[in-house]
Amino acid sequence: MSAMPNHTVAPTRPSLVLIATSLGVLLAQIDTSVVNLALKSIAIDLHAGVSAMQWVIDAYNLVYASLLLTGGTLGDLYGRRRIFVTGIALFAMGTLICALAPSATVLILGRIVSGLGAAFALPMSLVLLTIAYPGREERAHALGIWASCNGLAFIIGPTLGGWLVDSIGWRSIFYLALPICMVAVALTYHAVKESADPRERHLDIPGQLLAIAGLGGLAFAAIEGGHWHWTSPLILAIGATALIALTLLVWVEARTEGPLLPLEFLRDPVFAAALAIAGLMTFGMYALLFLMPLYFQTVRGATPFEAGLALLPMSLSFVIVSQLVGYLTNAFGPRVVMTTGMACMAAGALVLGEIGPATSMMVIGIALFVVGVGLGLNTAPVNGVAVAAVPAVRAGTASGLLNTARMIGATFGVAILGAIFAAYAGQEAASGAGFLPGLRAALTVGGIGEMLGAALAFACIRRHSLEARGA
C-alpha cells in the first residue's frame, strides 16, 4: 500500500458524508450496548466468570485504544476513506466470529478483531466529518448529530438487542451489525471523496509496540489481579513491565520524528484537558454500562429485554440533548456545556451507587436520565475541542489521540471498577450480600472520576475552544 499524494478534497454532499460517518459510530456503539446487555446470557451459556466477561468488553476496548493512533496515521498516509472502509470490513469480520464462537476464548478473539476495525473506522469518521463541515457553527451542529448516534445506538441496542437475546439467543445480536456494515461501506464509496495528507507522516512501529505492551499489561493486571491475587509475582511483573513500557514510550516518542504520540500536542492545556476529560467520562460510563444490566437481571430478576427498557431513559436523554448541544455550545461555549455535562454524569452515577433491591424504578430512571443528559452535553464538544486545538493537517492524529484517551478510560473503567465490584460480588456475580456493596463501591469511584472531569473542564476549557486552528 503506497502513500497517497498530499490532497484533501472537500465532498460535494456533506449530508451524505454525515450519514456514512454516523453509521460508523452507530456500529461501534450498538456493539457496546448490546454486548453489555447480553453478558449474563453469554456467561451462563459459555460457563464464564466475571473476569472472562470483563475481557469480552476489554479485549475490544484494549485493541481499540492501542491502535487508534495508528488508525489515524494510516488515514493520513493512505487515504481516510480507504482506512474507514477497511475498518468497517474488519469490524464485520470480528462480529461474525463472535456470532459463531463456541467458547469464551473464541468470543474474545472476535472482539479483538472487531476492536481493530473500530480503531480504523472511528477516528476516520470524525476526520471525514471535519473536512465535510469546515465552518465552526455548521461543524458544531454536525458533530451533535454524529454524537447522537451514540444515544441512538443505546436505544436500538437494548430494545432490539434485548428482544433478540430473549427470543432467539445472544448470538443473534452479533448478526445485527452485519447489514449496517454493508450499508455503511456502500454509502461511503458513493458519498465520501478520498483525502490524505502524508507530509512528514510515517508509521511509528516502536511507539506502537510500546503502547500495546503498556496499555495491555496494565489492563491485564487490573482485570486479573483480583483473580490471581494482587501480590502474585506474575501480576507484579506484568504491572512493572507495563509501567516500564509506558515510560519508554514517552522517551522514544520525544526522540522520534513524526511520532505516534506527538508530545508537543500534550503541552497545549486545552488539548491535554480534552484528553483527560474524555478518559474520565468513559471511565465511569463504561463501568456503569457493564454493571447496571447485571443489576437489573441479577438483583431485580429482569430479562435482557426488560433490562434494556430500564436503560432507555439514559438513551433518550442522550439523543435529545445531542441534537441541541450544537446550539448550546454556540450560545454558551464548550466550557459551560462540558462542565455541566460531566457534573450531570457524576451526579447520576453517585445516585445509582446508592440503589437497593427495592429502589423505585422512577428514581433509577431519573438518575439514568441525568447521566444521559451529561453524555449528550459532553460527547460532541470534547471531540470538537480536541480537533480544533491542533493544526488542521494533524486532524487525524488529534482524532486518534482523543479516541485513544476515551477508550483508555473505558478499558480501565471496566478493568478497575469491575475488579472493585468482583472483590465484593465474587466471580459469579450472584445476587448475594456482596452484590450491592460492590455496585456501590464501583459506581462511587466512577462518579468521583466524572466530578474530577467537571473540574478539569471548568479550569482548562475556554469559551472559544471550538474555533479551529490553522495549519
**What is the H/E order?**
EHHHHHHHEHHHHHHHHHH
Multimeric state: single chain
The structural class is mainly alpha
**Uncertain runs with pLDDT below 50, 5 residues or more?**
7-11
InterPro entries: EmrB-like (IPR004638), MFS (IPR011701), MFS_dom (IPR020846), MFS_trans_sf (IPR036259)
Subcellular location: Cell membrane
Membrane topology: Multi-pass membrane protein
Main location: membrane
Structural features:
471 residues, mainly alpha, Growth Hormone, Chain: A, globular, 80% helix
Explained architecture:
The chain has 471 residues and is mainly α. The chain folds into 2 domains: 400 residues, Up-down Bundle (Growth Hormone, Chain: A), CATH 1.20.1250.20; 51 residues. Helix content is 80%, strand content 1%. The protein contains 17 helices and 2 strands. Strands 1-2 form a two-stranded antiparallel sheet. Helix 11 runs parallel beside helix 14 and helix 14 runs antiparallel to helix 17. About 1% of the residues have low confidence.
Summarize the structure.
The protein is built from 17 helices and two strands.
List the helices and strands and how they pair.
Blueprint: E1 7-8, H1 14-46, H2 50-78, H3 80-100, H4 104-132, H5 136-167, H6 172-175, H7 177-191, E2 195-196, H8 205-228, H9 233-254, H10 263-266, H11 269-299, H12 304-310, H13 312-332, H14 334-352, H15 361-388, H16 395-425, H17 435-460
Antiparallel strand pairs: 1-2
Helix pairs in contact: 1-2, 1-4, 1-5, 1-7, 1-11, 2-3, 2-4, 2-8, 2-16, 3-4, 3-7, 4-16, 5-12, 5-13, 5-15, 8-9, 8-16, 11-12, 11-14, 11-15, 11-16, 11-17, 13-14, 13-15, 14-15, 14-17, 15-16, 16-17
